[in-house]
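[Meeting: bench + compute handoff]

Bench side (C.D.) handed over the final construct sequence. Compute side (W.E.) agreed to return the predicted structure before the next meeting so the bench team could plan truncations. Sequence as handed over:
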Amino acid sequence: MARVLALVLVGSGGRTLATQGRALDSLAIRLAGLSAVSGYEQAARDSLAALLPASRRDALGNLTLVLGQGAPRRLLACALDEVGYVVGGVTPTGYLTLRRVGRVESPLFDQQLEGQRVTVFGTGGPVPGVVAVRSIHLTRGRTTRPDAPFTVDDAFVDVGARDPTEVGALGVAVLAPVTRTKLPLLYGDRLLAAPAAGRRATCAAVLAAARSATRVKGTVVVAFTVQTVYAGSGLSAVKALRGPFDAVNQPTLPLRFRDTPIETVSLADVAALERALEAWLQGS
């Protein structure tokens, strides 16, 4: 199944199912550690492109790979991007303000940032930061009304700078992408927890299936799409540029704790999805 991945990612030439499973697990964990704020997916996309030398980037930024030839013409797509943030401004004292990128269902989504570690992706590389919290000592007793829920407008990110000049020296400017610091956690019976773990694990299964495909029915366009948390513009672009398609496959995985920092997916489900996609590529 994922023999080449076993060589590339875990440095083993073994061909056992156990070795292949470890390679897929390693790939899912690796992708779960990537950040790809919608509209700023370049680094994550380039990481996937390195594992798919025959892939191509389209004008919007989607990564596509064409397998096989002839009819039927089918599309296999997974979403690469995630809801995240960008720098909205810099205060005179060197704090960063944020703006959310993408739509979310939970009105309390932004509360996950309060007091947490974040990574700001500046021109010179990733910059660590932390979201400040209100001092309970200075605010105690000043109001009898309950505090309003934390929103993105309450987020002030400390990157260790004292003024805008020091922020600029870090390579950070307005519109630099920001995400919670990614620390994928493997726990329990092969359970993987990380922000956007479902999307990353799905893409891992798609990538592994595409790499190991030796026989494909007709033509299959494999697409890792961008800017999907807006209106699916990346997927629409692939359909317009590469279609029409006789069938479209957008696989998903069962999730726990969706849209939280501990969104969890089972790596056993990822392996099952890879096997199902291999069969689908062959026309089963």
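W.E. noted at the follow-up: The first strand starts at residue 56 and ends at 57. C.D. will use this when planning the next construct.
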